[in-house]
């Protein structure tokens, strides 16, 4: 893996990377879970999530134009809050949310692959296949940026084209309509449930942040980071909407929820038959493989930047090579552990909480410390914060009644990260090396 090689990623490659992470963790992994929260109108939850993401993207684009960096969000936080506990804590929330995302994609890969062999989703093969995918992603990432860019580009073309075909043909073959009455045995979704679903659906878009980690490699980063983010979000919004409509047209809500870990594969059965099932599963494999590769690339870079900024400790543990190689190993091992021990629903929920908390911190930091420097619109920044708070609050309320242990785990994990960063920066950083804005 090369050391921030300038101009090693093109605009097209950056878009491929962004959509690779977004689609891998998006429509394949989250459709059923979003439908479970919001009911028959779940396609609209993806549209609403795109709107929330658009407000968030404004902040990242404004900062990226002024400060393109391989550290991406870590560098943005440092510009806003200084080199202190707040920056380290929020950057690590982002890091862990992306590692959680990788385990989500890895388990999705296992769930869809097993559909080809009619094996139960509780099988130990699901995490085993996920771990195997992570090993493959490690091998590709140590091969260098250009291989990653080329691989991601071709995978993006295949999956976007294939998923669009699945959605459009599925809509054409099905008797498409929205039902206004929930099926028997399915509770009608509330406004809170819809907002909670939006919070979860945001995970399908947050992959755009991986593009910010490529500022040192991207051609003309001041212009192309923002362009790549906008193109990726627009492409995924259109794709998610037509796929969600196709799933809604071919399956009842109860069927979608029962098959929530592999809902697209289930939707392919009535629309396309057995050949359609194979086609959809192969698309899921392409999407998850490319998503993992792109995510590991960006996230290991981010952790390397945090190490270079002396915001997190680093140990070689006897490994040869650069810091980037070491952070790649740490990222893969952590993703493997999550893949083995957590199910898809809890992985997604944990990732949503971590990401939205970090996102709020980024917007607040820019609003309070960088707004004038970046000539950013204060109303847009405030709106982004308010939208994040609303959907996160709704999500926490829903989980408080359905899975309170998850919230306790998330809170404990965040407190542990906070305590760890405080202890390290207090005892591990030479005096004068860190500072924090008041």
TrEMBL record:
UniProt topology in membrane? Multi-pass membrane protein
User: What InterPro entries does this protein's entry cite?
Assistant: AA/rel_permease1 (IPR002293), APC_superfamily (IPR050367)
This protein's source sits in the domain of life called Bacteria
Coarse class of the primary localization is: membrane
A Pfam family reported for this protein in Swiss-Prot or TrEMBL: AA_permease_2
| Compartments, as annotated in UniProt | Cell membrane
- Single GO cellular component term: plasma membrane
Give me the segments passing through the membrane.
Answer: 12-35, 41-61, 81-101, 121-141, 153-174, 189-208, 229-257, 277-304, 348-367, 379-398, 404-425
Question: Coiled-coil stretches, from where to where?
Answer: none
Q: Alphabetically list the UniProt keywords.
A: Cell membrane, Membrane, Transmembrane, Transmembrane helix
Q: Which terms in the Gene Ontology molecular function aspect does this entry carry?
A: transmembrane transporter activity
What is the protein's given name? Amino acid permease
Q: What is the lineage of its organism?
A: Bacteria, Pseudomonadati, Pseudomonadota, Gammaproteobacteria, Candidatus Tenderiales
């Amino acid at each position: 893996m090369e050391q921030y090689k300038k101009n090693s990623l093109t605009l097209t490659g950056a878009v491929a990377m962004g959509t690779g992470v977004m689609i891998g963790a998006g429509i394949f992994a989250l459709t059923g879970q979003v439908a479970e929260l919001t009911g028959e109108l779940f396609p609209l939850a993806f549209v609403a999530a795109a709107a929330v993401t658009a407000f968030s993207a404004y902040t990242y684009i404004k900062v990226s134009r002024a400060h393109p960096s391989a550290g991406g969000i870590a560098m943005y936080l440092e510009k806003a809050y200084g080199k202190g506990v707040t920056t380290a804590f929020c950057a690590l929330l982002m890091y862990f949310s992306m590692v959680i995302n990788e385990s989500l994609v890895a388990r999705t890969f296992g769930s869809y692959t097993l559909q080809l062999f009619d094996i139960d989703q509780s099988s130990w093969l699901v995490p085993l296949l996920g771990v195997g995918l992570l090993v493959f992603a490690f091998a590709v990432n140590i091969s260098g940026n250009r291989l990653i860019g080329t691989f991601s580009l071709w995978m993006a073309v295949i999956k976007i084209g294939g998923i669009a075909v699945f959605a459009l043909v599925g809509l054409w073959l099905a008797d498409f309509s929205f039902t206004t009455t929930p099926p028997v045995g399915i509770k009608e979704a509330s406004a809170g449930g819809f907002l909670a679903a939006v919070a979860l659906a945001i995970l399908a878009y947050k992959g755009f942040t991986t593009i910010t980690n490529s500022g040192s490699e991207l051609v003309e980063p001041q212009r192309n980071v923002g362009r790549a983010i906008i193109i990726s979000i627009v492409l995924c919004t259109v794709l998610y909407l037509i796929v969600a409509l196709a799933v809604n047209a071919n399956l009842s809500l109860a069927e979608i929820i029962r098959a929530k870990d592999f809902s697209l594969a289930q939707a392919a059965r009535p629309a396309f038959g057995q050949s359609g099932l194979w086609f959809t599963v192969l698309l899921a494999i392409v999407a998850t493989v490319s998503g993992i590769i792109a995510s590991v690339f960006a996230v290991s870079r981010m952790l390397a930047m945090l190490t270079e900024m002396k915001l997190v400790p680093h140990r070689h543990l006897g490994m040869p090579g650069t810091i980037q190689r070491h952070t790649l190993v740490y990222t893969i091992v952590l993703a493997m552990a999550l893949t083995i021990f957590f199910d898809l629903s809890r992985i997604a929920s944990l990732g949503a909480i971590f990401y939205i908390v970090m996102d709020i911190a980024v917007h607040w930091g820019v609003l309070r410390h960088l707004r004038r420097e970046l000539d950013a619109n204060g109303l847009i920044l405030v709106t982004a914060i308010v939208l994040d708070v609303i959907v996160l609050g709704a999500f926490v309320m829903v989980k408080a009644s359905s899975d309170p242990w998850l919230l306790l785990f998330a809170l404990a994990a965040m407190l542990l990260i906070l305590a760890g960063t405080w202890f390290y920066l207090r005892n591990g950083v030479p005096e004068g090396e860190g500072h924090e804005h008041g």
